[in-house]
Design goal:
Blueprint: E1 7-8, H1 14-23, H2 28-41, H3 54-63, E2 64-65, E3 70-76, E4 82-87, E5 93-100, E6 105-108, E7 112-114, H4 123-126, E8 129-132, H5 135-149, E9 161-164, H6 174-185, E10 197-201, H7 205-214, E11 218-222, H8 228-234, H9 243-255, E12 262-268, H10 276-286, E13 291-297, H11 311-323, E14 327-330, H12 353-370
Parallel strand pairs: 1-2, 6-9, 9-10, 10-11, 11-12, 12-13, 13-14
Antiparallel strand pairs: 3-4, 4-5, 5-6, 7-8
This protein binds S-adenosyl-L-homocysteine.
Residues 119, 121-123, 165, 169, 200-202, 222, 265, 267, 296, 298-299, 342-343 line the site of S-adenosyl-L-homocysteine (SAH).
Length: 371
């Protein structure tokens, strides 16, 4: 193999890495050792993997590399939030955000360069869709953050939770996202508990079902409206998978994972979806499921026509849900001084228009395949 065809070991989960090692005549435990070097010690140089023989180190260096995306920017917010802009090929870039809290540290990870779903209130949507991230580019975000934060999965855990809530629709990059989530949850990887890895989706029904078959992670659903008319306006995907179908898929997902609930994200937009009447409609939907509601105050971005709901309106909305017995949290806005809050991520998406048609085709293929 030449240098140009080196495989990036960040593209493999444990199973894949063991298979690769088998192909080069090495035992599975060698793959396990390498995984530990990569994800527990953030080593990207085979020369430093001291428990491998010299010959194996040389063989690996010939055919493989450990190559995370380059960090273009590393921004710190006054509230402790940190955001990395990671450069991809062709001038594209994606963003990853770390949100520290007293009892946990959450990393918000991107799955695509841009997004093609066109949710009306999301900054990523204004960028259009460019391409799916490779598994190495997804797990590489965790790797870069973990290294920068001095994360040690089994001693000093800085990253306790990962949410696939950055740029892109993770279910439309299914295989790569699943592979990356496998590494997040592997003891030899980042060692996170299943429930501490959350995939957030705008609601691709067949792919929610497919996810429940292959991967045991927490599910979050971007609902934002309790009736089809309003939801279709905000999340155009709703036309294809209306609320009843979406909630039925959520019920199927929850049925497979007893004792865990599904999180419904609801971005609060002034005079759009924040009335008491809509709160009551939402109560009716949530009562049928093991559900948690996460209210997100709308985060503005240049060019948006939406505004954030007033704090007292959000409080009244939350009260209606709580009094009806629906567990409802208010997501605190973090990192908006560095444009790291929900819906503000845009990275850098070049050459997007030519890809829109390709994106639509991909939705067709992905959902047809799963159905
Ligand atoms: N495509 C996936 C992953 C994105 S998650 C999904 O839709 O779930 C990002 C979350 O932030 C989603 O719930 C999204 O709807 C929400 N969001 C998008 N724009 C926002 C904004 N401007 N303010 C607050 N939340 C926003």
């Amino acid at each position: 193999m030449t240098a140009a065809t080196k495989v990036n070991l960040l593209d493999f989960d444990r199973e894949g890495l063991r298979a690769l090692f088998a192909r080069i005549g090495e035992k599975p435990f060698r793959a396990d050792q390498v995984m530990k070097w990569i994800y527990h010690h953030h080593v990207d140089d085979f020369g430093q993997m001291t428990d491998l023989g010299k010959a194996l180190r040389g063989k690996l260096a010939d055919i493989a590399e450990i190559a995370p995306a380059a960090t273009l920017l590393d921004k710190h917010s006054v509230d402790g939030t940190r955001k990395w802009l990671l450069g991809m090929d062709g001038g594209n870039a994606v963003e990853t955000v770390y949100i520290p809290e007293p009892t946990r540290g959450t990393l918000c990870v991107s799955s695509q360069v841009g997004c093609g779903l066109n949710c009306r209130f999301c900054s990523t949507a204004t960028q259009g869709f460019n391409r799916n991230l490779a598994a190495s580019e997804i797990i590489g975000q965790v790797w870069v953050a973990a290294k920068a934060l001095g994360n040690q999965p089994h001693q000093q855990r800085r990253i306790t939770n990962v949410v696939m809530m950055g740029m892109g629709e993770p279910l439309l990059n299914f295989d790569n996202v699943v592979r990356a989530m496998n590494v997040m949850r592997d003891d030899l990887g980042f060692g996170l508990a299943n429930k501490r890895v959350t995939l957030s989706t705008a609601g691709l029904v067949p792919l929610i079902d497919r996810l429940s078959e292959v991967c045991d992670v927490s599910l979050a659903v971007s609902l934002h409206a309790p009736n089809d008319e309003l939801r279709t306006e905000l999340v155009p995907l709703n036309k294809r998978y209306p609320i009843a179908e979406l909630l039925a898929a959520c019920a199927r997902y929850a049925a497979k994972r007893p004792r865990t609930s599904i999180t419904f994200e609801y971005t609060m937009m002034r005079d759009v979806n924040d009335s008491p009447e809509l709160a009551r409609q939402l109560v009716k939907l949530m009562r049928r499921l093991p559900a948690k509601v996460n209210l997100i105050p709308f985060n503005p971005f240049p060019g948006t026509g939406y505004r954030r709901s007033e704090p007292d309106v959000i409080a009244a909305f939350q009260k209606i849900l709580l009094e009806a017995g629906v567990l409802t949290m208010l997501r605190r806005t973090r990192g908006d001084d560095i444009d790291a809050a929900c819906g503000q991520l845009k990275g850098q998406v070049l050459d997007r228009t030519r890809r829109q048609a390709e994106f639509r085709k991909r939705i067709e293929e992905a959902t047809a395949h799963a159905a």
